[in-house]
Amino acid sequence: MLSTINKLKRPIVAVFSGAFATLGFAPYNIWPATILALICLLLVLHRQTAKDAAMLGLLWGLGHFGTGIAWVYEVIYHFGGLPLPVGLSLIGLLIFYLSLYPSLFAYVLRRFPHLPDTLSLLIFAPALWLVVDWLRGWILTGFPWLWPGYSQIDSPLASLAPLLGVQGITLAMMLIAGACVLLITQKRAVFLAPIVVVIVGAFGLGKVEWVAPVTEKPVKIAMIQGNIPQKLKWLPSQRWPTLLSYQDMTRQNWDADIVIWPEAAIPALERDVPDFLSRIDAAARYNNTALVTGVLDQHKDGRYFNNVVTLGSNGTTSYAYPAKEVYSKHHLLVFGEFVPFEEWLRPLAPFFNLAMSSFTPGEYIQPNLNAAGYKLATALCYEILFHQQVRANIHEDTDFILTLSNDAWFGKSIGPHQHLEIARMRALENGKPVLRATNTGLTAAIDYKGNIQEEIPQFEKTFLRADVLTTKGETPYTRIGEWPLNIWVALCMGIVLLSTMKRRNKDKAGQQ
């Protein structure tokens, strides 16, 4: 097979296999596609120089991110106020930047050509991929979108998530990919062993119940999907029609234990609508219900915050501004909620001066919100990507993971589907149900195994009702996080370092 992938064909295979990887993610959900794409990547890198490998890795990334995150252009096109060539250039730069990471992986992998193929593909490559993924999730506040593990939410490998998290799944995928390449290149049946071990292990873990559902009392949840067009959301003339729309739909759901509105559902600062919030609070208390909503606010010192507050049955006596039960978004979206180097960038184009793009972050760890006596670990919109932050805010008595979002920015693209897929992974990792309320969809109740229990269509003004079970106990991932993976990566890198040192000592001895 390798003989057919000559120097001219390798770049083509790299681009198309990178694009093929996107089919593993929502909304396509063809999970074997991403594993096959990783196999192709390792194949085209096989026996290449570091320089050639870097270019092939870049091409793989361009194919993958060019198809997987091009939907970000929806924001630039509709709200950026930029000429078409400039807008296309910006999205091109983003895709190129993300493609540098698989390029870095490929370059470093082939910088050690002396490593035996077995060591390179089964030890070094999986560990190196995790390190590069970690860098992508950290540099410039991080963009851990399209980590390979997310593509397996509906595959047998998903059972690894409660034990090792999403990156444990990525590790398993890379081990399978490396073993497949060894099978193809060396044609030795022994390399079936890693594949069998991973698959059998995954099926075995799938039978383990890490947490226990509380079946005695399902929690009655209502989530309101307002479907407010983003272009109208902040118009002063639309403030009260929007508020009354949410109020009317909520009135039909006061029998729920918890009613949830999406991110920034209230098109005003909290300080500007205390009377409205007081009336909603009183109605919720009268019905023994808690209401959760996203609302922005500005403190007296001028700082803006993207908040979630609970009203009604929330452990306090009554609402008074500012809300006592409040969560402030910590992980802000670059350019959307804060602008780096803003003194230089803001004057350049409207895209760098979007409304509400100067927020202040809340604390990394914040108390769970109280809603009708239930504890909600909150992640606002983009924050649901950051698995360690979500995990850090889950306690033994946490009942739900709450994520509010406004994916109206991304229209009918594949972005909201990928966003929902990520939320499903957080549920599976931590054994906690996820309540996901959005403005235009996809609004969904996700059970503690990561399955969608109830979902309502996009772009409809409606509400979701679901009876959701809470859980007792913690998954191993919730208790210890990624320490097993960190130790494994450190051991692998140590093995590679020792092998390199031995090779150098041997070369020196041969020259004497």
TrEMBL record:
<protein>
    <recommendedName>
        <fullName>Apolipoprotein N-acyltransferase</fullName>
        <ecNumber>2.3.1.269</ecNumber>
    </recommendedName>
</protein>
<keyword id="KW-1133">Transmembrane helix</keyword>
<dbReference type="InterPro" id="IPR036526">
    <property type="entry name" value="C-N_Hydrolase_sf"/>
</dbReference>
<comment type="pathway">
    <text>Protein modification; lipoprotein biosynthesis (N-acyl transfer).</text>
</comment>
<feature type="transmembrane region" description="Helical">
    <location>
        <begin position="12"/>
        <end position="45"/>
    </location>
</feature>
<comment type="similarity">
    <text>Belongs to the CN hydrolase family. Apolipoprotein N-acyltransferase subfamily.</text>
</comment>
<dbReference type="Pfam" id="PF00795">
    <property type="entry name" value="CN_hydrolase"/>
</dbReference>
<keyword id="KW-0449">Lipoprotein</keyword>
<dbReference type="InterPro" id="IPR003010">
    <property type="entry name" value="C-N_Hydrolase"/>
</dbReference>
<keyword id="KW-1003">Cell membrane</keyword>
<feature type="transmembrane region" description="Helical">
    <location>
        <begin position="191"/>
        <end position="212"/>
    </location>
</feature>
<feature type="transmembrane region" description="Helical">
    <location>
        <begin position="121"/>
        <end position="140"/>
    </location>
</feature>
<dbReference type="Pfam" id="PF20154">
    <property type="entry name" value="LNT_N"/>
</dbReference>
<feature type="transmembrane region" description="Helical">
    <location>
        <begin position="57"/>
        <end position="80"/>
    </location>
</feature>
<feature type="domain" description="CN hydrolase">
    <location>
        <begin position="224"/>
        <end position="470"/>
    </location>
</feature>
<keyword id="KW-0012">Acyltransferase</keyword>
<comment type="function">
    <text>Catalyzes the phospholipid dependent N-acylation of the N-terminal cysteine of apolipoprotein, the last step in lipoprotein maturation.</text>
</comment>
<dbReference type="GO" id="GO:0016410">
    <property type="term" value="F:N-acyltransferase activity"/>
</dbReference>
<keyword id="KW-0812">Transmembrane</keyword>
<dbReference type="InterPro" id="IPR004563">
    <property type="entry name" value="Apolipo_AcylTrfase"/>
</dbReference>
<keyword id="KW-0808">Transferase</keyword>
<keyword id="KW-0472">Membrane</keyword>
<feature type="transmembrane region" description="Helical">
    <location>
        <begin position="160"/>
        <end position="184"/>
    </location>
</feature>
<feature type="transmembrane region" description="Helical">
    <location>
        <begin position="86"/>
        <end position="109"/>
    </location>
</feature>
<dbReference type="GO" id="GO:0042158">
    <property type="term" value="P:lipoprotein biosynthetic process"/>
</dbReference>
<dbReference type="InterPro" id="IPR045378">
    <property type="entry name" value="LNT_N"/>
</dbReference>
<dbReference type="GO" id="GO:0005886">
    <property type="term" value="C:plasma membrane"/>
</dbReference>
